[in-house]
User: What shape does this take?
Amino acid sequence: MGRGTVTNTATGLAAAVLLLGTAVGADDAGDRGEKGDGAAACAHGTYAWSGILREEKLTGLADPIRLKKKTDSVSGLIKPLKGVSYKPHVTATGPGVRAADAIKALGRYLKTDEPLADPSEPTEPDEFPIHFDYAMGDLEGSYYTWNAVDLIEADFTYTCQGGGAKPVKGYVVTWETTGGGFMPCADRVTDNPLKRPDAAARTAARTLCPADSPAAKSA
Assistant: This one.
């Protein structure tokens, strides 16, 4: 799978990024509906999308970071959140509908920059802690770092070409990227570069920053 970087911008910290996994879609040859006359006759249908929800979901947190004097670097572990689990899937299949194809169709509909994660992707978050290491210089004060997934959920209705079969209804859970960030508690929390409220960053700030800090107050 390809891997990329997602940045979380903030004043003076635009260079602070986490090396993050980018979800890359692939065909899932094991899905039902791939074989048989019904599938062949319905292989070139259309998807109608509704109820689309898209939100950054928190998947991991590091311990609070408190640097009492200036340092050039900081490192530690981001631990996965207990009880949190996301796996790309499609809840309904039928003639002409394959999970990987439905997810690809959603990506085209949303015009995503990256292919959406298909069922071949592992579950997020990883069960093991993730190491982070920032060497930025002049680090001092309180910071917070987290991992998240850009979760996408949507309903669909699939109609066979020519309308010869009953439309198939289903539900998709997927994501475009996994990511995270490293931010100072001294800065207010802002929306992410996609101009959507960054719910994961806000939850991380409330959890890890001092209650009287700008980050916690603005979260």
